[in-house]
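Re: the pair you flagged

First of the two:
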Amino acid sequence: MRNIWILLLLILITFSCKNSEQKDTIAVNYPTTKKADTVDNYFGTAVNDPYRWLEDDRSEETEAWVKEENAVTFGYLDQIPFRKDLKNRLEQLWNYEKLSSPFKEGDYTYFYKNDGLQNQYVLYRQKGNQEAEVFLDPNGFSEDGTTSLMGLSFTKDGSMAAYSISEGGSDWRKVIVIETEGKTIVEDTLIDVKFSGLSWYENEGLYYSSYDKPEGSELSAKTDQHKLYYHKLGSPQSTDALIYGGVSEEKHRYIGGSVTEDNNYLLISAANSTSGNKLYLKDLRKPNSKLVTILDHEDSDTNVLENVGSKLYMVTNLDAPNKKIISVDASDPGQENWKDFIPETENVLSPNTGGGYFFAEYMIDAISKVFQYDYDGKLVREIELPGIGSASGFGGKKEEKEFYFSFTNYYTPGSSYKYDVETGNYVPYWKPKIDFNSDDYESKQVFYASKDGTEIPMIITYKKGLKLHSKNPTILYGYGGFNISLTPSFSIVNAVWMEQGGVYAVPNLRGGGEYGKKWHNSGIKTKKQNVFDDFIAAAEYLIENKYTSSENLAIRGGSNGGLLVGATMTQRPELMKVALPAVGVLDMLRYHTFTAGAGWHYDYGTSEDSEEMFQYLKAYSPIHNVKEGVEYPATLITTGDHDDRVVPAHSFKFAAELQGKQSGPNPTLIRIETKAGHGAGTPVSKIIEQYSDIFAFTLYNMNYKELPNKAVIKEFKE
């Protein structure tokens, strides 16, 4: 009888505990997402696409679905008790003055500044020792701060400027031309400009690039015929001269034009993907000169870095996976005449010029080293940087003998320095005054073995004295694609995460550019699984070495990194507690049918290439690998309704699949930002709201009922 009473007591205790857990769990009632009978046939294989209707961003049905999903998501987030505290701390930490490195144009020195919580940086200028004045303030471009300044180009004498603006985060831009002294607009606004630089020729006009306006939705319809135009000041845009692209030449998805600093040459780059380009030159001193071919293939990334008279200096990875600088005469610039100027080394080169010198920045295990060379290719000096981290800048006009560079790492806010090109000496120009003690934090670089034995570097950052007990909340962030390198840089949002005892880990996955073109190519097309394996192995390393556990691990990535998160969570759903895919490429069978997505084929291949490529993509495409009966991690998908680079339909369809098939209790939510795009130009207020939601969701689903470190949270008043 005594044993029976003990058994009953245990049952009551267990029931009570479960009841308590259930009371702490936020209930989620997902909207019903309709399914439609949409089937595609790929090489004889039928593939269902029941949520195809969500691709129509202009339909009332899609709009209603977005509102319903946001209502559920924000209803959930509103119930997390410490969400407001996180927002307060983000606002507190964000609220410090931020300055960019200055740059000179004409008689003025320009710099960007944010007083603290301004939605957009303000562009100031200063003449000599006079008081600085506002030149452009994007915060006045729109009432809600969602119109941003996205590009700026001055004439050589600084008397004219053209700047581009983005509305609601869209990649479609408007261009405004002003006379700088009086800041007066000189002509009508140029419209429908996309994926474009702005390059002046003398004070007469400028080169820009764009696509024809697509039929259908400008936010999702395919755009794959880029064109380079020349706009002569004072003439209507409808009369702008087509310089390259269009029906008379081979179709190219990306075309750019830039004029050399001396106004002698127009350089044209033409590409069909985000990797590899053709290169042409036009002598602007001769009005009727024809284009001269420098490269007629897309087997390399090659661009002109500098010219001295007719001598061109170009950076290329042609037969040099880690890049080198070559020289050649503009009169006969073919590859057979190239001469090595700064040869390839075992480390990846990122060069710049200024003050009559070349500055060669090298990545050594994702850490910066910088060397200065003269125009004879002679090494002048290695520049001793302020510490171990990432340097940027080291560039300016030929005649400038002083310019600025910046330095940062994962726990040190970016500071800028004034550099003397002749002596190599530099002095601090600006250091931030921020309510964050960098001395309390540290980074450790480790190397771990991926599935096939490849050694992968990873930098892990945390508060000093961290105990390895598997309970540390950890964010594993990755990208792994498009030859892009993840190098150490400070982030206010990551600082807030680490203040709460969080670990922040960043592996340098294959597909990136940290070790040159070979590293990039080892993570593309039918080798893309290497990237996911590298990320999975990073998670396993953190768990095995007791930095964290699966119950306290979140994975995060955006864009191509959103694909990384989507593929990892569908392949290894038990490995992490939280998944945070942002603006992700998640439908790998149809990504190339939207906007300029077809240009990503170098990295991904497409489902139309071959049956082998189709089957490979289908095998990891996140949307096509959500399975019934699987318990997926707590997932917060984030996207913007104006994202016309990775269209939100990717995220919409992934959310619908997860909500329809999730078998466990973990929430699968989607947070859709309105009047926002792929990320660039997002107002500070929206960024703070986004990350307070992301961190609150993450910690709550790691079973935190209150913040781990409440001591840093104070009531914020602007």
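Second of the two:
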Amino acid sequence: MSSLLYSSSQTADIYPVSELFLRHRLQVVEELWESVLRQECGQNMVDLLRQLRDLCSPEGQTTNDQASSAVKLIEQLNINEAIRAARAFALYFQLINIIEQEYEQRQQLSRFEAETEVIEPETRPNANYSSNQGEDDGPVTGGLAAELLTKNYAQKTQTKLKGTFAALFPHLFKLNVPPQQIQRLISQLDVRLVFTAHPTEIVRHTIRDKQRQVVQLLQKLDALENGLGSTGVGHSWEVADVREQLLEEIRLWWRTDELHQFKPTVLDEVDYALHYFQEVLFDGIPQLYKRFKYTLANTFPWLEPPSKNFCSFGSWVGSDRDGNPSVTPEITWRTACYQRKMVLGRYIESVKNLIELLSVSMHWSDVLPDLLESLELDQSQLSEVYDALALRYRQEPYRLKLAYVLKRLENTRDRNLALYNRETPKNQDSPLYLSDAEFLAELRLIERNLTETGLSCKALEDLICQVEIFGFNLTQLDIRQESSRHSDALNEILEYLQVLPQAYNELSEAQRVAWLTTELQTRRPLIPSELPFSEKTNDVIETFRIVRSLQQEFGVNICKTYIISMCRQVSDVLEVLLLAKEARLFDPAIAVGTIQVVPLFETVEDLQRSRSVMRELFELPLYRALLAGGYAAHKWEADAETEGHGDAGKDTETKGHGDTDNSFPASPCPSVSA
């Protein structure tokens, strides 16, 4: 969370970290907190909170006598006073957390600069950090919070500074780790971080914005006070002004509801999750790649860095339906469109910025033929852009090219909005990007032309890195469903079709496996196009069908992981494969598909049995063929991604009995999660 409150754009001026700085900053925040409470609740409330706080030890513990005294104080409060006291302490600890997070990030930044060198407290620069009054004659106490946050400070400075790339690669060099081994590991590096769905953790955007504003003001105060200390000036109206702004922001925070006054929808939850991408990850992950590449080159300049998308993201938000009836196939579709809307919006802003930056004139710089040819093609496809801007940009080829790129992005965004609303896109003949690969190719064309004429553009490099990492999908959506939902759905389907002599749920595990294995090898569809089943069964079937639609519109990578929660036995996996087959996500005849089934063994008993379950799965010829068939995945995925963009958003229903459709794309090997 700390990275959420500390924007990368505000870390340019890094000041040394000291325990005294922490104590001073805590004192400032506590004074402002008390000032706000004095204005809002009166001096009696401030005195009460001080009493309650002082009953705790620096370690946050209380004796029996102290606890008894605290209970007596609290019991004397009426309901309104108790609510105010609870809110006041909640605000207090949130402010203290902000200080702690900023302090930890200062330590991390110092650690990155110092690499593996340990700096003792006595030798740290700015050890005699002074307050804004210029006092440096002793430690400034920051109350209980200072004791809580700094008690381990001395111990931390004695340990070796680890945890950064700058420390890792020199350490590997000293250990004489073979460079070939390091290169192999780097080439295989694939980190996927998944956002899970937890609505109880929802914090209002309003509160997050106020937290961020407090951080920005504190950083501004740091810079001003640091300047005062270096110049010896004892007073500054700017410091007073920033303190006043902090006081105002905290007071507004006090008068703001912490929680929404309505029940958030699933799409609200999606919006909250994407907030982290907007504010942190979209800019932060490319910086992570740059740091990796830079520090690797410092120690092993002959090694190749990883691919830019070595760290990618997945999400359960809007796709995890286990126990959440609000997550419907339609919600999952809208979630994918919503994610694309966000990422396209960021790309549009970045391209607008590039248009301002790349003012290169043909009078003073060469332009390669491939860019000129591209401009001619763009003119024929986007004549309205040429008519509007050709005169203005007649000698500025990069700006003209980026104007065409911008228009295609805007057309792509407009089409995505129509798909979100399940409307027919307007102007379907308008040039747009059917995939992020097309957008990336145009950016690389510009980059190549700049490079070959002796120029570079960091903003363009960052945008290319973002496109390689996030594409047009932002994250991969993981589907999760409880195992019994699949067996119940098949039970109803088979009962309706009168396929089995008895109910599916009454079969033994051996009978289920035998029937599922046989059915998986048939080419005959099992589920009719029209769904005359219960709402729950229809939802299970439509979930697989919406995955097919998503893959056709967004590409296979948007949604190819299907997690079976409470997985207990082999039939749980085979049921999902059968339902995937019916949605044309898996073809047993060639043992490939576009869905990766992940059994999730959760109870102690299921975990203990998981080895035998997986062994039995591995012994099934069909399952072994599926694992071995992974080599064909790239070809089939490419076919699937180019198959249906023109028909995006249309229902892709499976055929009824007697109909066949043998066009199946592919998938990676299933894996097990325990």
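The chain has a mean pLDDT of 80.

-B.
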